[in-house]
Amino acid sequence: MTINVLLVEDQKLIRVGLKSLFEEQDKITISAEAETGKEAVEKYRLTKPDIVLMDIGLPDISGIEAAKKILEFDKDAKIIILTSHLSEQEVLNSLHIGACAYALKDICTDTLKMVIKTVYDGAMWLDPKVVPILRDKNLGVIPPRQMSRAMFKEQHANLTQREYEVLKLVVDGLSNSEIAQELTISEHTAKAHVCNIIQKLVVDDRTQAAVKALKEGLV
Predict the structure, then answer these.
(1) Is the pLDDT of residue 198 over 70?
(2) Residue 28, by phi and psi: left (phi above 0), alpha (psi -120 to 50) or beta?
(3) Considering 141, 162, 169, 193, which has the largest number of Cβ atoms within 10 A of its Cβ?
């Protein structure tokens, strides 16, 4: 099984670098490229890739507008925004129109490969730097819900009080070492709590745990 990716990026050097990166992978391949938003829409219609890797800053229409047009053509399109922008409005707009992931260009190689596979499998992924924006400026991307402490215990009785405290810090974007410092515990203990939370919330990583916590009103 090969994941076919449409790469939408106006900078040739980045396109060449990403193509070179995925040439080493037998399960991910850049099957088509586009330099502009309008070209991206046309290439998607012609090639129907599994994943669209979309920059935001394009010469004609923005990557967000191009993604919107692709999703109007195919509501099941899987689009990953890959950008250097961390604008609150661009994050929110990207998620509002239906992007499956929002990643920053400083993402490491292995994580980008993981994001592509995660989105291909039907899950959502957000850069940890994006999570605080959704928490502090939630405008409907993830509907806020107030959950009483009693309701929380009823629905998530297997999450301990300490794990709940750790979860709130994960949502704030803190690393294991920062959590350890905040709660005056060892980094090993903090890591163990995070692993337990991921397992109990039935998610794959700390970012998905944070997203689920926001969606379900746990924090």
Answers:
(1) yes
(2) beta
(3) 193
CA 95 to the chain's CA centroid: 10
| Bridge partners, 101 (sequence order) | 80, 125
Domains in the chain: ranges and CATH: 3-127 (3.40.50.2300), 149-215 (1.10.10.10)
Q: Average pLDDT for residues 173-182, to the nearest whole number?
A: 89
Alpha-carbon gap, residue 145 to 198, rounded angstroms: 21
Element (H, E) at 80: strand 79-83
Q: For residue 17, give every residue at least 6 positions away whose Cβ sits within 8 Å of its Cβ, in sequence order, or none.
A: none
Q: What is the DSSP letter of 211?
A: H
Q: Strand pairing partners for 53?
A: 7, 80
Residues 6+ apart with CB under 8 A from 161: none
80 contacts 116 by C-beta, under 8 angstroms: yes
pLDDT of residue 146 exceeding 60: no
CB contact at 8 A, 97 and 37: no
15: pLDDT strictly greater than 70: yes
In this structure, what are the phi and psi dihedrals at residue 175, rounded to the nearest 5 degrees? -80, 170
